[in-house]
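Quick question, first post here. What does this chain look like in 3D?
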Amino acid sequence: MSLKEPAPVAPGTAAGPRAEQPHRATVWPEARAAAVRAGDLARAGRAPLGVPLGQALGQVLAEPLLALTDLPPFDTSAMDGWAVAGPGPWAVREAGAVLAGQAPTAAVGTGEAVRIATGARVPTGTTAVLRTEHSRTEHPLTDPSHIEHPLSEPVGTLLHALREVVPGQDIRPRGQECRSGDELLPAGTRVTPAVLGLAAAAGYDELPVPPRPRVEILVLGDELLTAGLPHEGLIRDALGPMLGPWLAALGTDVLATRRIGDDAEELYAAVTGSTADLVLTTGGTAAGPVDHVHGVLGKAGATLLVDGVKVRPGHPMLLARLAADPGRPGHVRHLVGLPGNPLAAVSGLLTLAEPLLRALSGEGDGAPHRVPVRDEVHGHPHDTRLVPVVHRDGRAVPLRYNGPAMLRGIAAADGLAVVPPGGAHAGRELDILDLPWPKAAGAAPAQGACFT
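> Answer (accepted):
Ran it through. Tokens below.
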């Protein structure tokens, strides 16, 4: 713990007269709101793409889904049985059974019945569909003139109803589900398998979706190893292997993960030369001798939108709007600077990068849900804390190993609890930031996970 980070305090404990004063930074909720606004602004200049149904799963609708046809598009049979016209009994028309996918060959006259399959278009003149199991057929052996029937000509097989038949029964009328032009789903709806089925039924071959955000990751630092064990002051790069898959789970296209030393000129060239919608840097956001991010942003003509957030871990994070690219008018680019400590970087990812990317994708702000915390959670005297938790029996259980440089807690977590300044007593409901991958319900924490 650095000298700039005071020790956590128990819930309800007031900071003493010598307690550190709040640092000058954006409060956590406003920082997330600023990221959403930045994403919304950038999305405004991006035209939606038409994506084939088979490639649209998991994306979101850029526009409302409007029915391109009535559903069903014509009157159809809801059951296997008989299309009948008028009151019974009915003379069975032996030829011309109506099957799904085939147009009826002839109308049904009053007093007639014809075989029909589920989903088939009902013939003109049909007044009801009589289910097979609610009917019986009769083959008269006597003179047909002795049988009372509305048709004057002789009949063969007769169809009788075993239950009352009411007009319109077991017929799905045209437009029962929707009429052409009706809004079926609003913009921003996640494309699930069911949405794909609805879109196909409504006449779509492709869906309008926002372009996937393009992200480039720049991992900074001369002290990072890409293989082997730490030695002689060098440590393994934990963020390079983690951030790419994390961002891909958020639905982005990760263009590259580049490793850059503590070189301001190299960083400037990488930032200004990137074609990504979002450049994500790790480390270099504080005020150390090799922390070059602020200097590079100033040189590049960027506008700082968030410069430090009142959250622990991760308070040196930042968000900037990069200068416009003359070759791509209307293309708005941003940079999120994450702290170099791994859990602090996760905090910055969930605070600034994820809300911005969700807004850029038209997904909304991914508002957290509230869950009571099982145990007391110590808080920072002035700042929000993000603490890894697991879900157990409807409660959030805080995990240990939640220091800025630690990943052991987040690796076993279901999400991060948003702990307000001053902490939270057991039973208090807290906002929970979910992680973008599924967790088996009721699963035990990973081996070695420790609770507070």
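The first strand starts at residue 26 and ends at 27.
Residues 137 and 159 are 4 Å apart (CA to CA).
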